[in-house]
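Database export, one record per block. Field names are fixed; values are copied verbatim from the stored entry.
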Amino acid sequence: MYPIIYSFGLIKIYSHGLMMVLGIIFGGFILYQFIKKEKMRTDLVMEILIYSVLAGFLGAKLLFIILYSNRFDNIFYLINGGMVSFGGMAGGLVATILVLKNKKQNILKWLDISSIALMLGWAIGRIGCFLNGDSLGIPTLSILGIWGRFPTPLFESMWLLLISGVCFWLYQKNKNRWLTGTVFSLSIGLYGFGRFFIDSVKDESIWFWQLKYGQIGALILIISALLIFDEIKRISAKK
């Protein structure tokens, strides 16, 4: 594990934080390029990034507190404890929608484009989780193991890259064939689908009906994606 990339005296650069920052920067750059190409409001990209990142961190921390409240023996654990990605996704999405609604933008079109950038940036951030030794899988002796465990953050990172590629292809090559919002709903559904299987080998305790909390979250994402797509079709049929 490599939690610290560089250390000089009191200065330490942590792998998790570095990869998260790189993910945000690279994802934001990709988003800007797409928005610019579509001749949409590039001035909103930075505002969306700031609010979605802040809300994402808040949501990830809040869900961690809710799920792992029994671990909080003291205030230091509360401050330094981890975060849950599903909460980050929800917080960032809510903030993005609120900004776009306030600016009277085409929310679904923005979310379609954002899906490509989000999945790409998230893939980079997940590498930081792996380097930090977070969210690793169960012990294994298979050739897929690293440090004696399934490298679930790397599995997720590769899955996210694949989703980003699929979203890019659908939007860039076939965008006129799909209803606005299709790429966004598909990205959520695919992410949930992959997470369900990846989390099956994650080193987490069973929560309910032989399912781990990540698998339950994944099922919620899949159901949400289907509901969103159904609503998109319903709205389109009325036009």
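Remark 1: The radius of gyration is 18 Å.
Remark 2: The chain has a mean pLDDT of 88.
End of record.
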